[in-house]
Amino acid sequence: MGESISRFKVEEGGFVTEAVLQELGKDYLLSLWGGVAHIGAVAMAQPRPSLADPARLSATASVFCYVGHKEDEIVKSVSERLASALGAKVVVAAGLHWDNLTPYGIEQVKKNVVKLVDLIIEKKDTGSCPNPPLVS
């Protein structure tokens, strides 16, 4: 395993969410942003056998969140999902901010993030990463 960088983008419901996945040896670093780019929270996850079914891979994460930011739940779920799917240590840094975001907007952004993660896993599973131009 080497080093590579892949870009991903989802634009649905009037919200653009983007990510850059950097492969660092056997580990991954994901930057995730939308709206006003910044860092609101960071999570690091590592794969482990599932507690419910040791034959399956799960993950455990630790989270750091800046005061006043709400990205903690997103980085935790994204890092755990990627660590389990990729069988690797994963760090996720995210900043998602739109002024006056409505409940609809919050749900749409969450859906966009799920789609981004789906794209990342799909690309890693099919071997079409690294370095796709820009996936939408």
pLDDT < 50 stretches? 129-136
CATH architecture: 2-Layer Sandwich
Q: Shape, please?
A: globular
Mean pLDDT across all residues, rounded? 91
Radius of gyration: 15 Å
Q: Would you tell me which CATH topology applies?
A: Ribosomal Protein S5, domain 2
Sheet having the most strands: 6 strands, mixed
Number of strands: 6
What is the count of structural domains?
1
Tally of individual helices: 2
Physical arrangement of strands within the biggest beta sheet: 1-2-3-6-4-5
Strand fraction equals 35-45%
What is the first-to-last residue Cα distance? 26 Å
Determine the structural class based on helices, strands and strand pairing: alpha+beta
Task: Please trace the helix and strand order, writing H or E for each element.
Answer: EEEEEHEH
CATH class identity: Alpha Beta
Helix fraction by DSSP (H/I, runs of at least 4): 25-40%
